[in-house]
Design a protein that fits this description.
Distance between the termini: 20 Å
Shape: globular
Structural class: alpha/beta
CATH topology: Rossmann fold
Number of strands: 9
Number of helices: 5
Helix content: 25-40%
Largest sheet: 5 strands, antiparallel
Number of domains: 1
CATH architecture: 3-Layer(aba) Sandwich
CATH class: Alpha Beta
Radius of gyration: 16 Å
Order of helices and strands: EEHEHHEHEHEEEE
Length: about 170
């Protein structure tokens, strides 16, 4: 039951920062972008275990910032727990170490992910900014296809107002 998150335009909020670390939850954001674009969750021979649509979004964010002279980095942690809202003390310690030298941490995740990053970095001067908005909950069946591709089928989404949507996202929300 991943949360369905919509990326926000962060250009104005990131004005003035010279360095930005994108802190990424590897669960809900990739599922959200895969379902919004109708693309596979995993295409192992193309992207490894990463989601192509989400990686494209991260690349576009970084390129836009770097064109303005902003130094960027990306941090995520898969083990022992992938969901950012459940990171262990060790995962949080790795984030604290990685964020050293960055002026801002942009959170690709939900409010709970933002809270994890904010609590982890509270003793630093690193600003924490949420780059996604909760729009609902996604329910889907994993479909495995050859060669080593995972798609999300039988998609159903409950929006933040508890309205159920069947099938692909409406064109207006893509």
């Amino acid at each position: 039951m991943p949360l369905h998150l919509k990326p926000l335009d962060m250009a104005a909020e990131l004005e003035g920062y010279e360095s930005v670390l994108i802190v990424s939850c590897p669960i809900c954001p990739p599922v959200s972008l895969a379902t919004d674009t109708g693309s596979p969750l995993i295409e192992f021979f193309k992207n490894g275990i990463k989601t192509g649509a989400y990686e494209d979004h991260l690349r576009d964010m970084r390129e836009a910032l770097e064109q303005r002279g902003v130094r960027t980095g990306v941090f995520t942690s898969y083990l022992p727990c992938t969901a950012m809202c459940l990171w262990t003390a060790g995962q949080r310690k790795r984030l604290l170490k990685r964020a050293n030298g960055y002026q801002a941490a942009v959170v690709m995740g939900c409010e709970s992910a933002r809270y994890t990053v904010e609590e982890t970095l509270k003793e630093t001067d690193c600003a924490v900014l949420l780059a996604m908005q909760l729009v609902g909950i996604t329910n889907a069946k994993l479909k495995f296809k050859l060669p080593l591709t995972v798609e999300l089928g039988d998609l159903s989404r409950i929006d933040a107002n508890e309205q159920r949507e069947e099938g692909p996202a409406p064109a207006a929300s893509r």
